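seq as requested:
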Amino acid sequence: MIRLTVLLLVTLLTISLSKRPTQLASSIHTTSNEKGISTGADRTQQYVPYLKGKRIGLVANQSSMIGKKSSVDSLLSLGINIVKVFGPEHGFRGNASNGAAVSNEKDAKTGIPIISLYGKNEKPTPAQLADIDLMVFDIQDVGCRYYTNINTLEYVMEACSETNKELLILDRPNPNAYVVDGPVMTDDKFKSVIGIHYIPMTHGMTIGEFAQYLNGEGYLKKPCNIKIIKVANYTHDMAYVLPIQPSPNLNSQQAVLLFPSLCMFEGTAINEGRGTYMPFTILGAPALKGKYSFSYKPVSIPGMSERPNHRDSVCYGLDLRNYDINKLRKSRQLNLSWVIELYKAYPDKANFFAPGRSKDVSAFDLRIGTDQLRKQIIAGVSEADIRKSWEPGLQKFKGIRAKYLLYPD
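C-alpha cells:
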C-alpha cells in the first residue's frame, strides 16, 4: 500500500511538471491589471495617422499585440504599409530557443520579409533600411540587463541614427519596474550578449524610458530621433500581468516576476527549470539529492530548451511555483538568499559557478555584471553586507535614471 501511494505521488508530480501552461494571465499568482492601463500600441489614435503614407519597418515579436491581434495584422488592416518586420531573440513568432540563431524568412500569411536581429545580423543594415521611411519598435520587455530586448533596442536606435531614420516606440509596462537592484556593471570585461549596458541587474524602466536613457547617456555616437507613444494611466509600482508570454521560457506570470532573481542561476551548476514547462519557477541539480525532497527531470523541449542543464537527470532543489511574489514587491529587491542557500548546500563548491570566457570571468559574472558577488558568496559574506556593497552604484544609477522617466515610481 505504501509503495502504491508513493508511485501515485510521483506520477502526479511528473504530470504537474510536464503540463504546458495555456495562457500566461491564467497562471499562478496573477493579479488583475490596474484599471485603465493602456499600452502605447493600443492607443492607435495617437500614432496610426502618423504612419499613414509611410513605408514602415516594424521591430516586433509575438508579444507585439494591438488588442487581441498581432501588431502586424492590426496595422495592415488599418491600411499601414509594413514593408519589413525585424525580429529579436526567439524570433518574430517567439518560438526559437534561448540563444538560437534565427534565419531571415518571409511571413507565410502576409509575404512580408522578416529580418532576424539575433545572430549574425544584430543591427539593421543600411541596405535593410533603405526602403523604410519610419521604424516602429513594439516589443514587451521584462526589465533585466540580461534580457536581450534592450540590446536590440540599442542596435535599432544606432542603425536609425546612422541612416537618419526616425524611430517610433510603442511603449509597454515593465512588469518588474518596481525593482531597481543588483550590482551595476562598470567594467568592459563583463560585457557580453547578455549584458552591454552599465546598469544594475534590474533597471526599473520601460522600453521608452530606456531609449531616452540610451540617447541621454551617450551610448550612441549621434542621438536617435525617437518619438514615444506612452502607456496611459501607468506608474512603475502598478502590478501588470502580461497578456502573452514574452519568450518561450517566460510562460507564466510567476516566471516573469521570478526571472530577475533566478536567471543568475544560468551561470551555475543549478538548473533553473529549463527543460520543463515550469521554467524560472523551480531550481535544482542532481548533486543536491538528499538535501531537498522536491525533484524533477529536465528534458529536451524543442522551441524552449533543447539542451537544458542536467538534461535527462533527476534534479533536487526548490519549488518556487507557489512562492508569494508579493514578498519581492514589498522588499523592492531581487532575492539573493536562494543563490547563497544553494551554494552552501552544493557539495562540489569548486564547480558550482560555471566557467566562462576566462578563468577570471565566469558565466555567472557575465549575468551579474561583476565578479564581486561570486567572490563574496565564496567568502561567506552576509547578504546584508553584499547589499551594502551595491548601494553606491545603485544610488548613482537611480539619480541618472530619474532624468529619463516618463512615469512615476
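Confidence is low (pLDDT under 50) at residues 1-16, 25-32, 94-102.
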